[in-house]
Amino acid sequence: MKIATFNVNGINGRLPVLLRWLDEAQPDVVCLQELKAPDGRFPVGEIEKAGYGAIWHGQKSWNGVAILARGTEPIETRRGLPGDPEDSQSRYIEAAVDGMIIACLYLPNGNPAPGPKFEYKLRWFQRLTGYAAELLALDVPVILAGDYNVMPTELDVYRPERWVDDALFRPEVREAFRALAEQGWTDALRTLHPGERIYTFWDYFRNAWGRNAGLRLDHLLLNSMVAQRLVAADVDRDVRGWEKASDHAPVWIELSDLDRPTRRRLRS
């Protein structure tokens, strides 16, 4: 089973990229972020023609998250992160797919820091951590997938010294990610590639893609029931080089079947 997360940076403007990637990669489940479209403008017809059922939580011009499932309909289990009824930003959606709970999230950027946007990011992280503990207590397979807007370690950023004051890399944010992971979540990509520089985002400016000046912002966190089935994890980085591509590349994991032993494959 192949599960992916992809910040599409505008689903309608980059729909040809998404559809091409779906056709080539054939993921079973996909979490999308930054739809930048209200609910009524989600391209459900094109997604269904590609063979995917979908649920989505849109927002005009900004944010927006969706979950796609190949050959089936995701069963929505939550829309919006609990903990703040006044938070109107579309950053979280959750579904049951093939016996798993899959959460798709788009954590706030937080810049400029310090400031109100950074405080909102930290509060959102606290809410996520609190709710993630509830998901762990369910004793079912759970995946937290999405754009976390955080580089957890210096290995996840091309020039760490240039990012020390940025909301994506400040100590408070990295500590929040660490606290979340230490609840009992496995960082899939880093687990299978522990010492490798792997990026999932390259800015449009300053030839970041050409220089491979990237950041690892997109993560799949797995509870123990999913982590024991993890056999592969990687980034489809070539997608970033396609025409009119998002500034993010898809990140994916592969899980073994429940009745088969796990044999993890490391990238050569």
From TrEMBL:
Keyword Metal-binding: yes
Positions marked as site (Transition state stabilizer): N149
Keywords, sorted A to Z: Hydrolase, Magnesium, Manganese, Metal-binding
Residues flagged as site, Important for catalytic activity: D218
UniProt-annotated catalytic positions: Y106, D147, H248
InterPro entries assigned to the protein according to its UniProt record, in alphabetical order: AP_endonuc_1, AP_endonuclease_F1_BS, Endo/exonu/phosph_ase_sf, Endo/exonuclease/phosphatase, ExoIII-like
Coiled-coil portions: none
Site (Interaction with DNA substrate): H248
Residues engaged in binding Mg(2+): N7, E34, D147, N149, D247, H248
Details of cofactor binding: Probably binds two magnesium or manganese ions per subunit.
An annotated Gene Ontology molecular function: metal ion binding
A Gene Ontology biological process term: DNA repair
Source species, domain of life: Bacteria
The Endonuclease/exonuclease/phosphatase domain, residue ranges: 4-248
One Pfam family linked to the record: Exo_endo_phos
Cofactor requirements of the protein: Mg(2+); Mn(2+)
PANTHER family in the cross-refs: EXODEOXYRIBONUCLEASE III (PTHR43250)
NCBIfam families the record matches: exoDNase_III, xth
Family in the record: Belongs to the DNA repair enzymes AP/ExoA family.
Protein name: Exodeoxyribonuclease III
